[in-house]
Amino acid sequence: MNKTNSDTTSPLGTRYQPAWQTVLVVWVLAAACTATLAQDVPTLKKIRDTGKIVLGVRENSPPMAYDIGGGKYVGYHVELCERIVESLRTKLKMPITIDYMAVTSQNRIPLVTNGTVDLECAATTNNLARQAQVGFGLTTFVTEVRMAVRAQSNITSIQQLNGRFVAASTGTTAVQLLRRHERGANIDFKEVYGKDHTESFLLLESGRAEAFVLDDNLLAGLISGARRPEDFRIAGEVLSVEPIAVMFRKDDPEFKKAVDDEIRAQMKSGALDKLYARWFLQPIPPKGQNVNLAMSAGLKALIANPNDLPYESYLKK
């Protein structure tokens, strides 16, 4: 009988797995069980039991969530989430440690659903497909999906993208939105992908793409942080209007209420308006650049009358 690398025969003729394989199997099963348990435990109980909360953040999505070096994460939604945690400290009457975990467009939902991340604090659109997997707080930003181009470019409309290279970030829906738009239906553009928003913007900056499609707030943040912000502008038709919200595990009503209560309090007191001004209308770290993006009429309306309606509610009827 031939021996293989995956098993061994003992002197008594019984097959057994080497010890390292047994340890590996036990470790994988333990990790799977831990993730399953984390999914099943309500978030507030998990926080009470562990004394900590894991915030999912982004490394390069200014001014919503980004890394300024040394493992320090900042931004509009990061600070909002930190305020939510402070309210949880008061509610639970205990200290709560914050662990920050960098997430991406591709892994953010799996990390929330498997219990690794408790509260995702970046720039995620609330839509019906995602609601089947995760929960969302009250809408705290309304974004318009548009495109960034070079300032000297003659591109002012989607129809001028025919035959051109268009950048998008992996894991976003920008290209699909562009193709679905009434003016983009018959446009033959060539898409190029960056692994994240910074790499996608570099495609535009280096001339490898002539347009970059993304949420306007993120485009404004990337432009303001460029070496020469004056070399770029936001242009073209609005491809989509989307509600942005913090994200957490689905079917956790106690945690959702705690999150929504604090967001609603921030809106009612005027604190959210000041938070918006801090990150969108004033110089922000690390370079002191100003995103200079005024609050939209849509967000003003939501602050006056908060809701958590999905993207589909914003579509033209």
Task: Describe the fold and architecture.
Strands 3, 7, 8, 9, 10, 11, 12, 13 and 14 form a nine-stranded mixed sheet that branches. The chain has a three-stranded antiparallel sheet with strand order 4-5-6. The chain has a two-stranded antiparallel sheet with strand order 1-2. The chain has two domains: about 35-140 and about 245-315, Periplasmic binding protein-like II (D-Maltodextrin-Binding Protein, domain 2, 3-Layer(aba) Sandwich); about 145-240, Periplasmic binding protein-like II (D-Maltodextrin-Binding Protein, domain 2), CATH 3.40.190. The longest helix is centred in the first third of the chain and has 22 residues, at about 20-40. The chain is built from eleven helices and 16 strands. The chain is globular and about 60 Å long. Helices cover about 35% and strands about 25% of the residues.
Summarize this structure briefly.
The chain is α/β, with parallel strands linked by helices and 317 residues long. It has eleven helices and 16 strands. It folds into two domains: 36-142 and 243-314, 3-Layer(aba) Sandwich (D-Maltodextrin-Binding Protein, domain 2), CATH 3.40.190.10; 147-240, Periplasmic binding protein-like II (D-Maltodextrin-Binding Protein, domain 2, 3-Layer(aba) Sandwich), CATH 3.40.190.
Keywords:
3-stranded antiparallel β-sheet, D-Maltodextrin-Binding Protein, domain 2, 11 helices, alpha/beta, 317 residues, disordered N terminus
